[in-house]
Amino acid sequence: GAIQIPTVSFNPGEFNTTALAAFGEYIHKVFPTVFRTSFIQHEVVGEYSHLFTVQGSDPSLQPYMLLAHIDVVPAPDQGWEVPPFSGLERDGFIYGRGTLDNKNSVMAILQALELLLIRNYIPRRSFFIALGHDEEVSGAHGAQKISALLQARGVQLAFIVDEGSFILDGFIPSLKKPFAMVSVSEKGSLNLMLEVNKTPGHSSAPPKETSIGILAAAVSRLEQTPMPNMFGSGPLKMTLQQLANEFSFPANVIFNNLWLFWPIVSRLMEREDITNALVRTTTAVTMFNAGIKVNVIPPVAQATVNFRIHPAQTVQEVLKLAKDIVVDDRVQFHVLESFEPLPVSPFDDQALGYQLIRQTIQSVFPEINIVAPGTCIAQTDSRHYTNLTTGIYRFNPVYLQPQDFRSIHGINERISVQAYETQVKFIFEFIQNADTEQRPVSHLHEL
Ligand SMILES: CCCCCCCCCCCCCCCC(=O)N[C@@H](Cc1ccccc1)C(=O)O
Ligand SMILES: [Zn+2]
Ligand SMILES: [Zn+2]
């Protein structure tokens, strides 16, 4: 039912408002207990986002927050095995836009809460559920407003859990077993517009170089000159060290001795697009516009480049690197938008949020040996909540293979019924684990 409501975000400020309103009515209908429970306050924020405040019985415990978003990216029918907004089930899978990003979380959170309430569960620790409606176009109207509202109320959170990582299966060559990656940081971004202006004229007597030629060369230099490999800095080294014993010989020796082999490993990571995204700031030329008529020398040429900034770099550093690569004063640089990478959230034995996620993974997925910290390569709504907590964790309790990763924002996005049920179970257990008094036991080293 949730998938059938086309809550598409097209551009900042451009949403399917009819669908967003319908989605609000839909959750009222299917989760009646959540909405009529006296200790749960429901508020609509920014017209279409939802904030639930679940008042726990023990005010001495610091609250936490679960995040998800109800909007989705557009999905033209072409290439889909079943229409993207049909929500049809086939061979045990629910197909449709939003099944992995991120209506699975929206529905699983509310469904888990509904089930707990039906069983008369009364949480001890207060928590919030924030469902943004414009994550896919920046979160300015949803997450940002909810964050400001909670800040005005003086709320401080123990931690936040959002989307952004999964139980990864088949992403690291020669690692046979899946592992859970909990992202403790998130890449930043810089959208840069490059522009070249030239005097227009008749194409029969062209200048040696046109604005298009100059810009194309600049853009090509950016593509051909990757930003530096930052393998050594950031959580990735730790991720691989934790995975070391999961590899067979000789990879296990290599990953156990990164002090010696890191140059080889950092090269290996560059080979595949996804692992490359973990080791450096990536450069993606995403738009290119120029020319007005076949026989007119183009006055203006513009290109936009989307950099995703490694947590060990800053917006200013990347801007300088980009200028140093282009080295052509005829090319003007305009910063359209930027966002710094997110600080690394704690993941030590005392980090409540991280340890609760870890503990719940170990009980719901007993077959998973490794829970490792990582970096989210995309941006999530959680980046708007740094004023409320230092513990931001991005993790969805769902198995993900590279082909599933491509289905996110792509075609044939789907989730198995069993995987969805497991996600509900995970949240059902997580909420209860967050109520247990003692700190989660520190992690024992895997055998
Ligand atoms: C070791 C192997 C690592 C493998 C990594 C694979 C992990 C999969 C990560 C999946 C991320 C899902 C979250 C997607 C969120 C998303 O699409 N965010 C968007 C948000 C956004 C929208 C408009 C403007 C700016 C930003 C984005 O980052 O573009
Ligand atoms: Zn998402
Ligand atoms: Zn998305």
Automatic annotation (TrEMBL):
Protein name: N-fatty-acyl-amino acid synthase/hydrolase PM20D1
Domain of life: Eukaryota
Statement: the UniProt record of this protein carries the keyword Transit peptide: no
Biological source species: Myotis lucifugus (Little brown bat)
Task performed by this protein: Secreted enzyme that regulates the endogenous N-fatty acyl amino acid (NAAs) tissue and circulating levels by functioning as a bidirectional NAA synthase/hydrolase. It condenses free fatty acids and free amino acids to generate NAAs and bidirectionally catalyzes the reverse hydrolysis reaction. Some of these NAAs stimulate oxidative metabolism via mitochondrial uncoupling, increasing energy expenditure in a UPC1-independent manner. Thereby, this secreted protein may indirectly regulate whole body energy expenditure.
Domain (Peptidase M20 dimerisation) ranges: 185-326
Keywords: Hydrolase, Metal-binding, Protease, Zinc
Catalytic reaction(s) noted: N-(9Z-octadecenoyl)-L-tyrosine + H2O = L-tyrosine + (9Z)-octadecenoate; N-octadecanoyl-L-phenylalanine + H2O = octadecanoate + L-phenylalanine; N-(5Z,8Z,11Z,14Z)-eicosatetraenoyl-glycine + H2O = (5Z,8Z,11Z,14Z)-eicosatetraenoate + glycine; N-hexadecanoyl-L-phenylalanine + H2O = hexadecanoate + L-phenylalanine
Transmembrane regions: none
Pathway(s) the chain acts in: Lipid metabolism; fatty acid metabolism; Amino-acid metabolism
A molecular function (GO) term: metal ion binding
